[in-house]
Amino acid sequence: MTSIWQADLVPTHDELVASSGEINRRLDDDVIAGLSAAGFFRLRTPTRFGGYWADLRTVLEITEVLGAADGSAAWAIGIAATATWMTSLGSARAQQEIFGSGPDARVAGSGHPTVARRVDGGLVIGGRWPYASGSPHANWALLGATVVNDAGEPVDAYLCLVPASEVRLEDTWHVVGMRGTGSNTWVAEDLFVPEHRLIAVAEAADPTEVIAGPPPTLPNAPVATLTLLGPLLGLGEAVLSAVIAGADKSMHHTVFARQRDSVGVQVQVAEAALALRTARLNAYDIADTLDSAARAGTTVAYRERAELRAAFGYAAQQVLTAINGLLNVHGSAAFAESSLLQRYWRDANTGARHAGLNAMVGYEVLGKELLGVPERISPMV
Are residues 111 and 243 in the same domain? Predict the structure, then answer.
């Protein structure tokens, strides 16, 4: 599929950064309205409900463009695309409930597992589900739940689709970066979730091993993690552009009237540009790999997923390396409260700490697979 977005539909840099998301720790209502009007909440909505069912390369490209203006807005769209896609693994009845009134339903999920109990017709769940990005504006919550036996041992795991009106949102997102994502905590007590709104985690996590017959869907982990890279790529490109544009200022305590005349600056800018290019090549290669598998209806074997898991962390670290080097070039002025550079730096360094982008875990996953060590240290591969 070719890209379906149009540049003139993307909210402008000024429109996004002028929002008070930094102060309110959530995106403004008018920003959400603009993103919705641009069609960004229907990127992964099934076409039968009026959605685009866009390929992953398109989602990556859109979140990269948005990330150059506002990391939180880009993150919210990427996470929403994943959560919306996850509903496609649910029942037809659940999908009708979510999208029947329109394709722009907003789903905010948290896979944090809480203990659930099986009852007639479904599950009863309760607990707290943190880090639900986009939750302040969500219509639906996607919540993790684990069913245990009498001995307290897990026997089944599910993702539960719940109307946002049936859960409480607790304001817990007090952080220094990605502040506008509104990644707060869903809370519920003894909430009944009917069977038709349950998604088996085993099917979502590794469909290539549990689905027989029709072409398998893509595994959840690489699809979900890919959408985290777009905002980081956009933030990195924004920093590079800003530092290059500001390179006419003088270098204090040197003979250089302009930063751009310094060989040291030239080298650091070149290194940062190449690091960002490396990150981008990895990210789009992952997108193309997953899109090709989806089009062909082929499986994504564990070995290949291990490579993707490592590449995610590697790409994120390349972005951080580039940004940190560029801020060294720009100097202490980058950390003025009035400078967008410090916000980009905070957003990137916060976003890159997502568990799915943990480079050391990814490297270990791949290293074990390459060396024939059977131990699997993460279910998210």
Answer: no
